[in-house]
Design a protein that fits this description.
The longest helix is centred in the last third of the chain and has 30 residues. The protein has three helices and no strands. The radius of gyration is 15 Å and the shape is globular. 61% of the residues lie in helices and 0% in strands. Helix 1 runs antiparallel to helix 3. With 97 residues, the chain is mainly α.
């Protein structure tokens, strides 16, 4: 199951990175990374971890407190999730045939 799920999670991560970048969000030099966290290893559902800031960074704390920035991030995440879900559902129909 994990072999089938990992590509879906990879596409979800790519969709989120693209949507955040499109909205003008600041991104890490390598926005998509892999980790061996057990919560990311679900065998039957795509699992990702999205970090939008760290509290130890004063600049990140300011962004997290900014309602305009939070709205931008919310819109980017929603757009990415919607686009990914539609594409994932369409692909699932093709795989079932």
């Amino acid at each position: 199951a994990r072999i089938e799920t990992q590509p879906r999670a990879d596409r979800l991560a790519a969709a989120l990175a693209a949507a955040i970048r499109e909205k003008g969000g600041r991104m890490h030099r390598h926005p998509i990374q892999q980790a061996a966290f057990s919560v990311l290893k679900s065998p039957d559902i795509p699992s990702i971890l999205l970090e939008v800031g760290v509290l130890s960074s004063e600049a990140d704390r300011k962004r997290l407190a900014d309602p305009v920035w939070r709205t931008m991030m919310q819109e980017a995440i929603l757009a990415a999730l919607t686009a990914w879900a539609e594409a994932d559902a369409a692909e699932a129909k093709l795989l079932r045939q």
